[in-house]
């Protein structure tokens, strides 16, 4: 009985419950926000004619999301860097706890917008509060730093993919129920129940992160041998990362940023694309569509488990990129709901690249630099989004009349370009891979 209690206690001090609670709440919130935006933009009119058309509604929705996403991505940059520095100095929970406060305040903002019939633009203030607390940029980098500290270099890719699987499974469950919760009747306003449940989950997650979450570091025997060796044994002492490591870092950053531009830009537009004819989804369909995206976490995890036995990390990244490129290209020609799911099915391995890139990055730096390296990658994503978010929005709006799916074709091309720096890393890494596995981090 004592052993069982110890096991349960150990489980409830790990990062996994935080990931589950946060992603369940996030999946509920995403559906709620999407439906509230659709409802508030339903009567949008063309400035020139004063007539409400499908194109005017699409432009109103995409304009709202453009500003919302820019605020959400711009405001966390400095706070995330400061939190990462705190994390590397020993305050490992800071990059996780602080964003939870921002999440809670942001979700409360949406609840007030629904209950008080407030203006939709109030959500921009919610996005700012979320960002100033560190945002997802800080939260996910903090999670990855804890995961890196709690795993060996040899197993890190698989461990990170397991975290992604847990994240995706929680998102899948949350998305499947979100549409049904949104439709529950409330005299205060439609969506109140859904947003209230989401806010409550964020509150529980925050309390858990503060009181129960425990930071644990697993000694890496390979790293220990490298760092403690005196240079006279079979394993050489590990020197600090050299010029080759910096080149690999730059190439991995370039590939990661290009892939993030392609995926991030396409997914931002997809939220609006789902609401236009001929799809024109309701809340339940939105939830199911979001769930289809989270299924990719499961297929990507299985892909890593199977393919990692016979191919390198770089090859895994390339497979994932090409999987997304093919799926998003097909998405450009979607005209019915079943075609949407066919396009999603082509993206089976689209989640493999990012955790694998993070794993390779962690192998190029010392353990004390995990936090700043991973947060630098997230900040690079945020800076890139300041350009691609408005660019994707304007390109989508200008192509509504002749080819609404053009933006997805563009994402496919950018993804293919992102494979180039990753392929170069693949040509460079094998010569040092054995040494860096011994060196660890």
Could you characterize the architecture of this molecule?
This protein has 18 helices and no strands. The protein has 441 residues and is an all-alpha fold. Residues 222-244 and 434-441 have low confidence and may be disordered.
Assign the structural class, choosing from mainly alpha, mainly beta, alpha/beta, alpha+beta, or little secondary structure. mainly alpha
What is the count of DSSP helices, taking H or I runs of 4+ residues? 18
Measured between the Cα atoms of the first and last residue, the distance is 39 Å
List the helices and strands in order. HHHHHHHHHHHHHHHHHH
Query: Poorly predicted ranges (pLDDT <50, ≥5 residues)?
Result: 222-244, 434-441
Mean model confidence by pLDDT: 83
How much β-strand is present in the residues?
under 5%
Taking Cα atoms only, what radius of gyration do you get, to the nearest Å? 22 Å
Shape: globular
The biggest beta sheet is recorded as:
none
Number of strands: 0
Helix content: over 70%
